[in-house]
TrEMBL record:
PANTHER family: OBG GTPASE FAMILY, OBG-TYPE G DOMAIN-CONTAINING PROTEIN. ATP binds at residues 10-15. HAMAP family: YchF_OLA1_ATPase. Pfam families: MMR_HSR1, YchF-GTPase_C. It comes from Roseburia porci. The keyword Protease does not apply. InterPro entries: ATPase_YchF/OLA1, Beta-grasp_dom_sf, G_OBG, GTP-bd, P-loop_NTPase, TGS, TGS-like, TGS-like_dom_sf. This is Ribosome-binding ATPase YchF. The keyword Cell wall biogenesis/degradation does not apply. One of its GO terms (molecular function) is ATP binding.
Length: 366
């Protein structure tokens, strides 16, 4: 699962990315600094893992991960090829969801590409580029389908969808607010276009340190982001990229103290990572043992054999059954054998839909 970090130059994307990955991507005070998309692997924070690992005296505890891509260089005119625009747009097309960073902090030392701080305008600038790029995709598809439709009358329905979608985008709206008619073909076509503006999006309002404690409630820039996001049912997260970068350098104890001083329970990044995970419809199931306790990422609704396949394809092919116990119930019992004695370990078959926080032992034939 990949998330792309987008936004205008100098809004704090690289700073956020660095704190997410501590990978050391470049961060500097001028546009076009980061040209190559940087990919970082980020652990999904999960309190359950440590507790479970302690119970099993596991040698290793392995969290679930998601990938973040720092997509720099998206500027006005990107869809027309400005500033390597098309390349960046192609990078966005590969991600599953978008984190759109918006500058809500004042700092006269940091140049804004458009000369002033104006989140609504900034969001529109980026979204327009995404919309233009999507319209281009639709136009190409329309040209192709129109030709085929002369031979194949069933394609008239797709043309209708394409035209309606194009109109929606031309009205300045994102594809994710388009109501796809309840029709299997239409839904499949819609997904196949892989439109940028159809991707689930989180807005990250990048504020200064002072605005963290009240979640940006008194910052009019943040309010502007909230209003824009509301129009398209997207979520907003208030972060301070600069502070996150400092926090990322600390060890766990220092971090806890630092957050307490700021009046926060968890870092903005932790909140953002968790929110991204659920935005993508992802959940974790857990495996536990002396060697390793580990979280595995699956889509909500995944059945037991396919969940087992995340560990190894043999597990899916030879699946017999799964022994399943809820993580909290297992902890309360103190051990798997105690949980079994209590009769709370389920024996589940091929149709079992795995739940978040299930601790699972798979039985399979080799
Ligand atoms: P990008 O071009 O969007 O990747 O932006 P960068 O992450 O390179 O940040 C541009 C400049 O803004 C850098 O000098 C950062 O240190 C600074 N910056 C980033 N986040 C914040 C913040 O929350 N507050 C302040 N004051 N400066 C920030």
């Amino acid at each position: 699962m990949k998330l792309g970090i987008v936004g205008l130059p100098n809004v704090g994307k690289s700073t956020l990315f660095n704190s997410l990955t501590k990978a050391g991507a470049e961060s500097a005070n001028y546009p076009f600094c980061t040209i190559d998309p940087n990919v970082g692997i980020v652990a999904v924070p999960d309190e359950r893992l440590k507790l479970l690992g302690d119970m099993y005296h596991s040698k290793k505890v392995t969290p679930a991960v998601i990938e973040f891509v720092d997509i720099a260089g998206l500027v006005k005119g990107a869809s027309k090829g400005e500033g390597l625009g098309n390349q960046f747009l192609a990078n966005i097309r590969e991600v599953d969801a978008i984190v759109h960073v918006v500058r809500c902090f004042e700092d006269t030392n940091i140049v804004h590409v458009d000369g002033s701080i104006d989140p609504a305008r900034d969001i529109e600038t980026i979204n327009l580029e995404l919309i233009f790029s999507d319209i281009e995709i639709l136009e190409r598809r329309i040209a192709k389908v129109a030709k085929q439709a002369r031979m194949d009358k069933t394609l008239a329905k797709e043309l209708e969808l394409l035209e309606a979608l194009k109109k929606h985008l031309e009205d300045g709206m994102m594809a994710r607010t388009f109501e796809v008619p309840e029709d299997e073909d239409m839904e499949e076509w819609f997904n196949s276009y892989n439109l940028l503006t159809a991707k689930p999006t989180i807005y990250a309002a990048n504020v200064s340190e002072d605005d963290l404690a009240d979640d940006g409630a008194n910052n009019p820039y943040v309010q502007a982001v909230r209003e824009k996001a509301k129009e398209e049912n997207s979520e907003v997260f208030v972060i301070c990229a600069q502070i996150e970068q400092e926090i990322a350098e600390l060890d766990d104890d220092e971090k806890a103290m630092f957050l307490e001083d700021l009046g926060l329970k968890e870092s903005g990044l932790e909140k953002l990572i968790k929110a991204s995970y659920s935005l993508l419809g992802l959940i974790s199931y857990l495996t536990a043992g002396e060697d390793e306790t580990r979280a595995w990422t699956i889509k909500k609704g995944t059945k037991a054999p396919q969940a087992a396949g995340k560990i190894h394809s043999d597990f899916e092919r030879g699946f017999i059954r799964a022994e399943v116990v809820n993580y909290q119930d297992l902890l309360d019992c103190g051990s798997l054998s105690a949980a079994k004695e209590k009769g709370i370990v389920g024996l589940e078959g091929k149709e079992y839909v795995v739940k978040d926080g299930d601790v699972i032992l798979f039985r399979f034939n080799v």
